Amino acid sequence: MMIKFSAPLWAASVLLLAGCAAPAPKQPPVLVQTPPRIVVVADPKLTELLAYQASLRLMTPSELVKAQLELARADHAPHNTIRRAMLQATLRTPGDLARAQTLLDAITQASSDEAKLLAPLAQVLSGQYADLRRQDEVVEKLNGQLREAQRRNDQLNEKLEALKNIERSLSVRPAAGAPK
């Protein structure tokens, strides 16, 4: 004898059998280690100095001169000293990077609370300025080598032209022993 199942009865029996099936084994949760969070509370003076550094890059030469005049009138507080160093490094006339490093060295050696707060920034800037000085020295050395190579090239071209002139003068003269 054959039993006919209706569609709802069929679906119910499938669900009932599915419920009897063994549950999937639970996997232990994967533990992910996250690095510890470091919260840095930025000092307003540091934030202002970083903004000042960014603004220097956008200034025109006349604006840089105006900023230099304003800083000359400012007091010698550590944050103004760092501003002076940043401005010196931006001007990049001969000796400016060395002067900027000297200003920053005074901050790293000072004992005031503000100087101690700004000392890490002064150390980073001083390191960058030292790198820039080394790069400038390499560029100057390469420029000297290029000038010397150009000078030698000019001398060789002069000698070559002199030899060409001698060759031309020889070809114009009649050969020796030729009938006249």
TrEMBL record:
Domain of life per record: Bacteria
Protein name: YfhG lipoprotein
Signal peptide interval: 1-26
Taxonomic path: Bacteria, Pseudomonadati, Pseudomonadota, Betaproteobacteria, Burkholderiales
Keyword line: Coiled coil, Signal
Residue ranges that the Swiss-Prot or TrEMBL entry lists as coiled coil: 132-173
